[in-house]
Design a protein that fits this description.
Elements: E1 2-5, H1 10-21, E2 27-30, H2 38-48, H3 61-66, H4 78-87, E3 96-98, E4 104-106, H5 110-119
Length: about 120
């Protein structure tokens, strides 16, 4: 299992703490330093079963600068959203856990972290 984190994020720190408490075997990816490629973002979206706008932090300064609130949220705009996430990784919702069974979760709650643990 891999967890994408921003160490400055309290939700990320909480998820790591819970994973450690449960004795989970996981790899940490500091996604602001080790930026996911367009292909990796596409893969994670497939694993999450979500669209890129559903994992975008729209309140970030970068999102406001890009005018993401006004971007279409449809199949035609999907690649534009994915490219924006790859170019501005701070916009990616966190933490994201990719489980060993091929699924993934946005692990912002203890329940979501436990869900990911159950899939490993």
């Amino acid at each position: 299992m891999e967890i994408w984190i921003n160490p400055a994020c309290s939700k990320c720190r909480g998820a790591l703490h819970l994973l450690d408490e449960e004795g989970a075997d996981y790899t940490v990816r500091r996604y602001l330093e080790d930026v996911p490629s367009v292909a990796e973002i596409r893969e994670v979206l497939g694993r999450l079963g979500l669209e890129p706008w559903e994992i975008t932090r729209t309140q970030e300064a970068d999102a406001k600068e890009l005018g993401l609130k006004d971007w279409p949220r449809d199949a035609e705009a999907r690649e534009r959203w994915i490219a924006a996430l790859a170019e501005h990784p701070k916009l990616i919702q966190r933490p994201i856990i990719t489980a060993d069974d091929g699924s993934a979760v946005v692990a912002r709650t203890d329940e979501a972290v436990r869900d990911a643990l159950g899939r490993s």
